[in-house]
Fold this protein.
Amino acid sequence: MKKKYAIIVAGGKGLRMKTDIPKQFLLLNGLPVLMHTIRVFYHFDSSIEIILVLPKEQQNYWSDLCKQHHFTISHHIADGGETRFHSVKNGLQLIKEESLVAIHDGVRPLVSGHLISKAFRQAEIHQASYPVIPVVDTLRKYTSENESQIVDRSKYCLVQTPQVFCSEVIIKAYQLPFSEYFTDDISVVEKKGNCKPIMIDGCRENIKITTPIDLTVAETLLKCRI
């Protein structure tokens, strides 16, 4: 098994949370969201190298939170960029050896060790893997400002993280110039065309915390795990 890295991207500003505190720092069952996320990767494999990507202006605050909560899991800090693409690119600069690299949203604290393990295993075989879940709601496409038409939801899926890659694949892909098309890391790799990523089954509990209701749901799910 190759050496493992986890790049955890946390550049949110909490706008949809309607709070001045960035969403990755909000308390979830008494601990900042981001700490829950880091802990899952550490508990999955204590030897994993964790790279946390944070905007420069948030790094001192994060350091204070670590002291306040006695958070001692070892991790490196990379500077956040103008966009998620630029943030991931900065994180990749800290990888100096052939390895497997997971890239994960900092505000997905309910990811399971099982999903992380599966993503790493499949990436080692196929060079890149990403989790998806099926769309269960009725799905419609906007046709004008006040109109829409139904589409076949069986042809669509929701994409999650972690997305895991062989280091040489993801580092080469991030040499591409930025495009607004790059909404996640798989889209960058597909544009580069240097491998064919494989889909794996995601998990509905692996929610991305972006609104107040998401935080409430996450608190409930965490309590169910205890």
Residues 3-130+159-225 form a domain with the Spore Coat Polysaccharide Biosynthesis Protein SpsA; Chain A fold (CATH 3.90.550.10). The chain has one domain: 3-130+159-225. The radius of gyration is 18 Å.
